[in-house]
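Supplementary Text 2. Reproducibility record for the structural model of the 115-residue chain.

All settings were left at their defaults, and a single model was retained for analysis rather than an ensemble. We include the record here because the model underlies the residue-level annotations in Supplementary Table 4.
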Amino acid sequence: MTAPPTTMTDRPGDARAAFRLPQRSPARRWLAIGQRLALAVVGGYFLSAAGVTWGALLLSGVMPRSEAVVLMAMLGFVLYLVVLIWAFAEQRLLRLWLVLGLIPTIGHLLTHLPG
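Retained model, structure tokens:
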């Protein structure tokens, strides 16, 4: 004879069991947190720098260049903050690597093309 379940999550067929995250070792959790933090800080910086550069280039066609640069520099802080918050809200670490690794790289490469 088995003991009755003590909590709701111990019951067989519990619908919430499908939504629980898999248990990882503490070392793997700390590694994931370290990657997320590094991606948020470094990748967010480069993403906001690329966004400021491209935004200033695009806005310089409709407003004076100096005003476009100042406007995008101020909006860059907001963009950086949004990226930092998103980096810790996003559940998939692979998506962070793709977005915060590839987009800034492509943006900077396109900015420094000759011509």
